[in-house]
Amino acid sequence: MTKVAILAGGAGTRLAEETEIRPKPMVEIGGRPILWHIMRHYAEHGFKDFVIALGYKGEYIKKWWVDYASLGGNLTVEPARGKVERHGSELPDWRVELVDTGLKTLTGGRVKRLAEMLGNETFMLTWGDGLSNVDVKALLEFHRSHGRLATVTAVRPPARYGHLAFEGDRVREFSEKPQTAEGWINGAFFVLEPGVLDYIDGDDVMFEHAPLQNLARDEQLMAFRHDGFWQCMDTLREKHLLQELWDSGKAPWNTWEPSRG
User: Fold this and answer.
1) What SS3 state is found at 201?
2) How far apart are CA 114 and CA 97, in angstroms?
3) Which whole-number Å values give the CA distances from 51 to 23, 137, 248, in the listed order?
4) Domain 3-76+84-155+183-260 in CATH: superfamily?
5) How many whole angstroms separate alpha carbon 94 and alpha carbon 39?
6) Contact between residue 122 and residue 3 where contact means Cβ atoms under 8 Å apart
7) pLDDT in tens, 99-129
8) I want to staple 220 with a disulfide (CB 3.0 to 4.6 A). Which of 58, 60, 125, 215 is the partner?
9) Which DSSP helix (H) or strand (E) runs through 5?
10) How far is CA 8 from CA 40, 117, 184, in A?
11) Ranges of the chain with pLDDT below 70
C-alpha cells in the first residue's frame, strides 16, 4: 500500500496564539486537528498508511493519538479489578507511525529521516497545515503515467480580496475572494519516488529549495494541476476561514459527512 508522509514538525510562529501550547498541525478545525482532516481526506481515497514527521511539541501529537485510540467509543471500567474495556468504537482503520525527526530539522531533512519507514516504494508527501479536495487517487495515477521521480500538485492560490471585473468603469462582475485566475503555486500533495531522497543532503535542506529546483533542472518534476479547493493555514485569519467553512456545512474537503457538505 502506498504510504502517506506528512510533515508535522514546524513551530507555526504566525499562529502563535494557538501554537504556544500545541504544534500547528494540531490546531483544531471543527473539534479535530487539521492533521486529522488531512489524513481523513487521504483515507477516503483509500490511503490509510501514514508516517508523521514530528518536531516541535512532537509529544503533544503522540499523546493525542494515544488518547484518540484508547478513549474512542465507550468504556466499561472495573476499578477493583483494574479492568478497562473499550467497546462501541468506530475509529478508522489507519496505521500511523509517529517519527521524531528533530526539533530544528528543515522540511527536506525531515523527509530524508523518514527513508527507513517509507521503504523502496512510491510514496505521497504533504504538509500538515493545508487542506484540499484534490483527487489523490487521480494524482497517483498521473504520477505513474509519466515515469518521472516527482509530482507536485499545482494550485491557484485563493485571493486575499474580492475580485472586480470591469466594462469601462462599470463593475461587470464581483467575486468575493475567488481563487486567482493567473499563476500556479506549490500546493504540496506530492507523489515521489525513493530516488528523490538522493536530492536531499541532510537536515539543513528545505525541500522547497534545492531538491525541487534540481528535480526540475533534471526534468524529473511534473505538475498535477488542481483547479478545485486548496487552502493553507498559516495565519489566524486562515484558521478562522477554515472553521467558517466547516461550520457552514460546506467544507469542500469534507467528503465523509455528507450532511456537512
Assistant:
1) coil
2) 10
3) 17, 18, 31
4) Spore Coat Polysaccharide Biosynthesis Protein SpsA; Chain A (3.90.550.10)
5) 9
6) no
7) 999 999 999 999 999 999 999 999 999 999 9
8) 215
9) strand 3-8
10) 15, 16, 24
11) 159-165, 169-182, 258-261
d(CA 192, CA 49): 15
Rounded Cα distance between 6 and 13, Å, is 19
Q: What is the C-alpha separation between 111 and 150, in angstroms, rounded? A: 14
d(CA 258, CA 151): 30
pLDDT in tens, 190-221: 999 999 999 999 999 999 999 999 999 999 99
201 φ/ψ sector (left φ>0, alpha ψ -120 to 50, else beta) = alpha
What is 132-174 written as a DSSP string? E---HHHHHHHHHHH--SEEEEEEPPBPSS-EEEEETTEEEEE
Domain map (residue ranges) of the chain: 3-76+84-155+183-260
* Cα 52 from Cα 114, distance rounded (Å): 9
Grid coordinates given for 49: 498508511
Instruction: Please compute, for residue 174, the number of CA atoms within 13 A of its CA located in the half-sphere on the CB side.
Output: 5
Residues 6+ apart with CB under 8 A from 236: 15, 17, 18
CA–CA distances in Å: residue 73 to residues 67, 87, 180, 224, 255: 11, 6, 43, 39, 22
The Cα 225–Cα 139 span in angstroms is 9
Helix, strand, coil in percent for the chain, rounding step 5: 35, 30, 40
Distance of CA 159 to the CA centre of its chain: 20
Amino acid, res. 29: I
